[in-house]
Amino acid sequence: QPWLVHGFRGGPVQMAQLHSNGILVSLGLKADPLTIKQVPQERLFLETDGNTLISQVIELAATVRNESISTIQNLIIRNNRNLLSL
Q1: What is the pLDDT of residues 46-86, one digit of tens each?
Q2: pLDDT tens sequence across 11-20
Q3: Residue of 31, 30, 28, 10 whose CA lies nearest to 19
Q4: Is residue 5 classed exposed, middle or buried when 0-12, 13-18 and 19+ CB atoms within 10 A define those classes?
């Protein structure tokens, strides 16, 4: 069963340690930008809490990763489907 750490705010080294143990991380507006930039595409998960809109988190990820919003949206959809085996 896959594990997904909600609200991950650690750095790239911690993220890599979790990934090496099969644990995924979900990132929001308060995530470390370097972590957002370095998370592999197939392991990118985004989230929102409170008053934050998911579009804000997607825009942040797109900006930090220098990718289009549609690319990030498609990655998130694909990764969630893979995680949930849909």
Answers
A1: 999 878 899 999 999 999 999 999 999 999 999 999 999 85
A2: 999 999 999 9
A3: 10
A4: middle
